[in-house]
Each structure stands twice: as structure tokens, then as C-alpha cells.
UniProtKB/TrEMBL annotation:
Cofactor: a divalent metal cation
Compartment(s) where it occurs, according to its Swiss-Prot or TrEMBL record: Nucleus
Natural source organism: Parnassius mnemosyne (clouded apollo)
Protein name in the entry: DDE Tnp4 domain-containing protein
Any single Gene Ontology cellular-component annotation: nucleus
Domain DDE Tnp4: start-end pairs: 4-138
Family: Belongs to the HARBI1 family.
InterPro entries: HARBI1-like, HARBI1_dom
One Gene Ontology term of the molecular function aspect: nuclease activity
Family annotation (Pfam families): DDE_Tnp_4
Length: 196
């Protein structure tokens, strides 16, 4: 399990879980998952979405796949059956965010070729190899930067406002608001309708 920042750097990794376990089970049993349950993660303060000055204050969210439960800070896609256009747009935008994780692991594996094959060492040492690769990858990323054009929107976490989250907004309402935002003039991107 890994958390990433907007520059493809690892900010949290957990490599001690069984590969056969689902992502949601790994998250739930991790220190981070337990801290999330207890509201101790220090997730940035909620804020209004980009270009949505008159909109609602929304929480920062972890992007998870279908196996995750929906909560205030965890967004999962809609079920794929019979979706209206707005929900298909949400799922597309959600998948783009999750794809960043896949790209980061691809970059990691291509840079540190030991990850392209089975690592024939004991489990504890294997965990240390993976953690070392992630640490070295962050170091190289800071030293060399990104070597290709980055077209993603940059959202710095330091500019968060001090608004409080509306307690009456359910996790379903949060996902629905993001869904509406992604099809609004403020939150849509030109190519999204071609991709669904």
C-alpha cells in the first residue's frame, strides 16, 4: 500500500502485507487504516474545489477502488451497471486519479530493475529492498525532478483554508457533489466526454 504526492513521490508505504489480501483489507489493518478510523490522520482541512468559489467546502479524499467502503475521506467509483453520463464521468475522473498510483509503480519498477523479477531473499530483507527502492526513488525524483511534461493540475496542500467540514454531508453526498462538479463548467475537462 502506498500514498503518493502530486510529484509521484511516496509519502507512505506499507510493504508488510500479504500479496493475496485485498487493498481495502490491507488498508483497514494498517496503522494508517486504524488512524483513519480514529480520525488521527491529519488530513488537510477541507476547502472549496478549484474554480468553484461559491461551492460547498469539500474534504480531501483518498481514492480507492471498488473494494473500499465509501466514507468522508475515501472516494470509490460508482458500480458500473446502468450509469448515467454524470456517474460515468465521475468514474473516468476517479480512474485517472488512481492511474497516478499505477504510473508511479511503473516508474519505480523501471528505475529499480530488481523489482522486475522475483526477489529470492527472505521476506524481511525483501521488505527492506522495496522500502529502499521507494526511498531512493524519492531522492532521485527530488534531485532530478520529473523528466517529462506534467499535464496534471497541481494542487498544493499548503494552501488549505480553515473551514470546518459540514457534519450533515454524508459520504454519498460528497461523492455526488464531486460528480456534479466534474460535469460543471468549473470542474469539467474538455476530453472527458470522449473517454466515456
Amino acid at each position: 500500500m502506498a500514498w503518493l504526492d502530486e510529484d509521484y513521490k511516496f509519502i507512505y508505504i506499507d510493504v508488510e502485507s500479504q500479496g493475496s489480501a485485498s487493498d481495502s483489507t490491507i488498508f483497514k489493518n494498517s496503522n494508517t487504516g486504524r488512524r483513519h478510523q480514529e480520525n488521527l490522520l491529519n488530513i488537510p482541512i477541507e476547502r472549496i474545489l478549484h474554480n468553484d468559489e461559491n461551492g460547498k467546502i469539500m474534504p480531501f479524499c483518498i481514492v480507492g477502488d471498488e473494494a473500499f467502503g465509501l466514507s468522508k475521506n475515501i472516494l470509490r467509483p460508482f458500480s458500473k451497471r446502468g450509469l448515467i453520463v454524470a456517474k460515468r464521468i465521475f468514474n473516468y475522473r476517479h480512474a485517472r486519479a488512481r492511474r497516478m498510483v499505477e504510473c508511479t509503480f511503473g516508474i519505480l519498477c523501471n528505475k529499480w530493475r530488481i523489482l522486475h523479477r522475483p526477489i529470492d531473499v527472505n521476506i524481511e530483507f525483501c521488505d527492506k529492498i522495496v522500502m529502499a527502492c521507494c526511498t531512493l526513488d524519492n531522492y532521485v525524483r527530488v534531485r532530478d525532478g520529473i523528466q517529462y511534461p506534467d499535464t496534471a493540475y497541481e494542487c498544493t496542500l499548503s494552501n488549505t483554508s480553515t473551514h470546518q467540514w459540514h457534519r450533515n454531508m454524508s459520504c454519498v453526498n460528497i461523492r455526488n457533489y464531486f460528480t456534479s462538479y466534474f460535469i460543471s463548467p468549473q470542474g469539467s475537462v474538455p476530453w472527458q466526454y470522449e473517454k466515456i
